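Data deposition worksheet. Section B asks for the primary sequence of the deposited chain exactly as it was used as input, without tags or linkers unless they were present during the calculation. Section C holds the resulting structure in token form. Section D is free text for depositor observations; keep each observation to a single sentence. Incomplete worksheets are returned to the depositor.
Section A, Depositor: J.P.
Section B:
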Amino acid sequence: MGFWKNLKYVLSDECNGLLRLLVDHYNRRSDKNEKSIREILVKVQQSLDAQEVLDNNMSDSYRELKGSQEAIGKVSEQCGSVFSQCETIVSQISQIETDSAARGQEIRALIGEEFEKQKEEMKKSSQMLAARIRDVHSYLEAVNEPDPDAPNVNDLLARIDLLEQKNAEYESRITSMQKDLDETKQAYDAADKGFQEEKRKVFHLSKKLAQANSKISDLLVRVKDSSLETMLQKDEVQSPFVITENKEKYTITAGNIQVMVTRFANMAVLDRFFESVPDYDPYKKMYVQYQRDIRSTARQFTPRSELEDVLQAFVGVVQEDLIAKMVEALYRRMRSGSAEFEEKLLEALNQYLEAIGFYCRDGLKVGEVFQEEDLKDMECAQDTRAEGREQGEILEIQLYPYYINFIDKYGKRKKMHTKGMMTVA
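Section C:
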């Protein structure tokens, strides 16, 4: 502020000097000093302008200085508040230090007491451990005392060497005997293989001879009343389990899936048979289970489903509930003796399966040797106790494979079947 004031005084003095010089020139004005008067007037005007600018700047500086003074006052008040808070914090820290010192003394006292207790306990433990060590040491000394009755170690080692030598001799003899045994076994296997082959040939020839004798006997009995062609024919009784009606029929196509489902669900012939059968009958329980499974399977598919998927699901239910359970039970019961109820049930069951489209592969016969292709649709169980039978001869057919024909969406004729079961020698 003093700088601006001094500058103002300087400008005022300069302006007053210029005014005096102007008056002096004006009083002595002439043509020569007119120009000097105008120059002095210009300088006076510039001095006045500079003084006005200086006055404006002094006013602005004063206002800024006043604002700065107010801001400094506010900062001074905030500093006073901060100093007051700092004094409070310092007093709190002093109090905390005092409390910490008191607590430290208490903790040291507690630690000292606890250390004395642990020291006493460790002393007792050390005494007990020392006593135990003395007992163990005494026991070890007693154990390590030499036994007067113990055998001499050198004698034992000599006996071990002798036994190892004898064991090596025995192993050598056993190896030689094993080699001789293997050679004898190989010779026996070769001889037995040749014997079995000759036995099979003899049995096959004797079987053919017996069949020829049977035919000759039949011819001799019937030669008077029958022609040669009639005499050469042999009547064979077909198994009641065999169905052959649908062997050449292809009625199931990809366009009539709903018709096929309706066939499986139409169990009227079996419903009529089981009307008078009590609910506790095992066959009726099997039939009720089959009804539930067929209906559950039918609800899984729509007319847009793939034919092979639908047919495979239904054939699986027939295999599981009818063939593997009901038909097998009927076979066991009918084989054991008279079974009038089972015969009627089998007749009704065959009618139902024929209505669906099933038939049995009838190329299988008891007494013949099964072929490799028979294993595609048959499960084969071997009977090792069958004596006097040719290897692979069919001894019994428990279940026939059931086939069903269909035409897929490409027009190809295909078949689907269940698994049969037979016993062979």
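Section D:
Confidence is low (pLDDT under 50) at residues 221-236.
The beta strands are 358-360, 378-382, 394-399, 402-407, 413-417, 420-424.
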